[in-house]
Amino acid sequence: MILLYEGKRGEMRVLIGAIGHESNTFTPFPTTLEDFHVLYGSDLLTRPLHRSSLDGIVTTLQAHDVELVPTIAAGAMPGGVVEHSAYETFKQAVLREADASYVDGVCLYLHGAMRAQGADKEHPVDYCENDLLRELRAKLGPDVPITIALDMHANIVAEMVENVDAMVAYHTAPHVDAFETGVRAAEMLLIILEENIRPKIGFAKLPFLLPGEMAQTSLDPMATMMNMVEEIERHPDVLSASLANGHCWADIPDVGVAAVVVAKRDAELAQAEADRLAAAFWERRTEFRVSAEAYAVDEAIEQAMAAQESTVFLSDSGDNPGAGGTTDVPLILDKLLARQATSALVAGIWDAEAVEACAVAGVGQQVTLSVGGKLDRRHGSPLKITGNVRLLADGYDYRGGIRRPPMRTKPGLLAVLNVDGVDVILSSTRLSFVDPAQLRVLGLEPLDYRIVVLKRGYLTAPFQAISERSILALSPGATNCDLTQMEFRRVNRPIYPLDPDITWKPDREIRP
Questions:
Q1: Beta carbons within 8 Å of 94's beta carbon, 6+ residues apart
Q2: Which CATH architecture has domain 13-287?
Q3: Which of 169, 224, 279, 471 is 20 to 30 A from 382 via CA?
C-alpha cells in the first residue's frame, strides 16, 4: 500500500503529531490525563521507533528533507470516555504550532474513535478528531493541506472528511500495517505539495455497528472486501481507499462503517468508488459474524476443557481492554473453578486491593480474597477465592529485551495466585496482554497450560503465531460482541444489527 513517492526535495515545513484513544462509552470510568503516555515537541523525533503510524510519517518526511514541526504524541489504552481537560491539553498542543505563515502542510496520526466528556449536557460526548480538525482547518485556512492516518476502527463522519485533503486507514486487523499507513499519509501530503493538487474525497457512511471480532482481514467476508479496497487503489488517479469499521462500543450519533476513496482530481470517480465499496459491504452485512471459533461462555469452556490440542487460548471477549473493557469481570474464572479445571491461566484481573493483600501475605502464603467485580458491577460481582501466592512481580520491569508496548502507562505491581490448579494474574493497574512475552517475563510459559484465558477479542498476531487452537467466549461486559445485548440510546436509528430489517443505499452526494 506504499505509493513510493519520488517527488522533489526542498524547503518544506510540515506539522506532525499523533493523538490516539479508542473510547468506550460503556466503560464505567473516565480516561484521565494520567492514563496517557505523552511526549511533546522534539521528544517525538528522538523516541525509540516502534513501527507506529507516527514513525511512518516521520521516517518518510525526513527521507525527503522536510523540516518537521513536532507537536504532541499522546496515547492510552482503550477505555472510558476521555476527560475533557485532557483532550483540551492535547488539542492545544497541536493548535499552538498551527501557523499558516510557517507550515506548508500537516500530517497527523489520529485513531479516529476518541471521545471526550462534553462541555454541557446537550453535548455529553465530543467527537475529538472532528473537533480538532475543525479548529485546525479554521486556524490554517483552506490552502494548507492536511493528511491523516487512521486506525481501521475510526469512526469517520462527513465533517471530518470536509476538513482534510486526504486520509487513509489501516488495511489489516489485527493491525500490522500501522507504519505503512503513516508512510501512506505522508506520501500523499508530499504529492499534494509537489504536484499542487487538491484531492477529491468520496465518502459513504453505512448504518452498521460492527465489532472488530467480525472483521478480521485474513478471513472472509472482510478479506474479500479488502481485496476490493486494493483493487480500487490500483487505479492511477486514486491515492488511497479505506474501509473504517468504526468503534461499535460507542453510544453516540453517527457511528458506523465508512468507505473513503481519495482521488487526485476526479470527484466523480472518488464518490463512485466509495459508493461501490460501501454497497458491496452492505450487501454482505449478514455474513459478518464472529470469525473465530466462538460459543456462549459455558460451551466455550466445555470445548476448551475437552480439546485434544495441548493448549487452547480462550478469549473473554466481553471484557477486552483492547476495546475498552474493565478487565475486572471474573465470570470465566468463576466457571473454570466451578468445573474444577486445572492447568489453566487467567490473564488477568484488575484488582489493586487483591494485589495488595497478596503482597502483604507474601509468596507461598495462602490468602482468601474477593477478586474483580468492583468496577463493572453491571456484568460481574466480586468472586471469593482462596489460593496460594505463587509470584509477586514488579510489572515495570520487562527484562531480556522485552520492551513495554508504546503509548501505554506502566503496569505496576502484580501477583500470580494459584487457586486449585488455576493460575490467576492479578494486576494493580488495567493490563492488556498482547504478547506471550508479557507472560514469559513473569516465568509463565503459556504453552505449558491446557487453557489460557486472555481478556481479548480476536487474538493479537503474536498470540496467533503460537496458537494451535483459539476459542472466543461470547461473554458479558463493556465489549460484548452481541451488540443486541447492549443498551444503545444515542445512536442514530435504524442501524444494523439493532434493526435487522433496515434498508440502505449510498447517498450520491459529490463533494466539489
A1: 15, 17, 19, 71, 72, 108, 132, 136
A2: 3-Layer(aba) Sandwich (3.40)
A3: 471
